[in-house]
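Tokens for chain A. Residues wanted.
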């Protein structure tokens, strides 16, 4: 087995495993050099050999205990024909966002081995190159819908919120289709070779608890149930991460997932007490900590690790993705601190 898979299954470990969200990305000079030559973000995602190389870069540099396939959470809506592109300083933009009921009702579930086959090919190329587990992922239905309706990242996603308030049944039609699409996509990733899958519910925290249960969590639960009820995928661990969802951990546990990611706004010690050992926890150091002095980085890393001292069921990670302005040497310090923990 591996430290990562043992921890997520709450089997004994010699130390907590470590990986970080967006570990393959813009803070690494080798990534930036490759991007300069590769013709843009989506081109890199859609070229399996390049996606493999980017996935491997942080493993070579730091020796993380897990790799995450280089891709994007918005591949499904792109495969549905919404035309995804990335503009410098603006993030993801859809050329054909969903403007009305007809736009939503014309959508269909993409075939993951054809329209998303480049992701599966990247997994198949990458898996033999690794000696650590490989994580696959998708955006949650609610988060995918946010970008599909708004067309781009806008604070508060007002068009999505308006759809929720004015035409909730139409939004449920979209979310149900997306839940089916995400299930199919993750099943294909597992068949291609990933060891774990993670659902990124980046914008679930926009909602209050009743709306979160209705418009986000219910669809996350549907995806988890679909994967757990499929003999091919039933044994693959599932991580749920709702940014801003720290107050809802108990109802997230009820989905049947194996681990919960938590952001830095949630106390790790309190979260551990609340989930009662039913699931593993992943997180939750503030990414901004990596901009601080070395002593502070070591102190904050140890503060997370000490919550699970002598116990399993914990995966060290940041509370959200690492930002592009981080000095790579600070990440070395973080990883070395985790790896020397308990020695």
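Reply:
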């Amino acid at each position: 087995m591996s430290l990562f898979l043992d921890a997520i299954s709450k089997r004994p470990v010699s130390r907590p495993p470590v990986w970080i969200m967006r570990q393959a990305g813009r803070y690494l000079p080798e990534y930036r050099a490759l991007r300069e030559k590769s013709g843009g973000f989506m081109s890199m995602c859609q070229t399996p050999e390049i996606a493999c190389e980017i996935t491997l870069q942080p493993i070579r540099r730091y020796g993380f205990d897990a790799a995450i396939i280089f891709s994007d959470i918005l591949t499904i809506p792109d495969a549905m024909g919404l035309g995804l592109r990335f503009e410098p300083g603006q993030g993801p933009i859809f050329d054909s966002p969903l403007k009305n009921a007809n736009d939503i009702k014309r959508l269909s579930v993409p075939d993951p081995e054809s329209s998303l086959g480049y992701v599966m090919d990247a997994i198949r190329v990458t898996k033999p190159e690794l000696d650590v587990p490989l994580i696959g992922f998708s955006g949650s239905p609610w988060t995918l819908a946010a970008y599909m309706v708004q067309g781009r990242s806008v604070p508060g996603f007002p068009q999505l919120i308006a759809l929720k308030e004015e035409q909730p049944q139409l939004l449920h039609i979209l979310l149900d289709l997306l839940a089916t699409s995400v299930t199919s996509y993750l099943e294909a990733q597992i068949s291609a070779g990933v060891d774990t899958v993670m659902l990124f519910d980046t914008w679930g925290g926009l909602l209050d608890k009743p709306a979160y249960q209705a418009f986000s969590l219910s669809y996350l639960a549907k995806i988890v149930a679909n994967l757990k009820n499929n003999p091919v995928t039933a044994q693959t661990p599932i991580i749920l991460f709702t940014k801003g969802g720290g107050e809802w951990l108990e109802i997230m546990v009820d989905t049947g997932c194996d681990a919960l990611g938590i952001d830095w706004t949630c106390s790790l010690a309190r979260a551990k007490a609340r989930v009662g050992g039913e699931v593993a926890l992943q997180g939750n150091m503030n990414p901004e900590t990596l901009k601080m002095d070395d002593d502070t980085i070591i102190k904050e890393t140890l503060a997370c690790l000490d919550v699970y001292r002598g116990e399993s069921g914990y995966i060290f990670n940041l509370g959200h993705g690492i930002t592009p302005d981080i000095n790579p040497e600070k990440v070395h310090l973080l990883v070395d601190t985790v790896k020397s923990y308990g020695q």
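The chain has a mean pLDDT of 96. The domain at 3-339 is CATH 3.20.20.210 (TIM Barrel).
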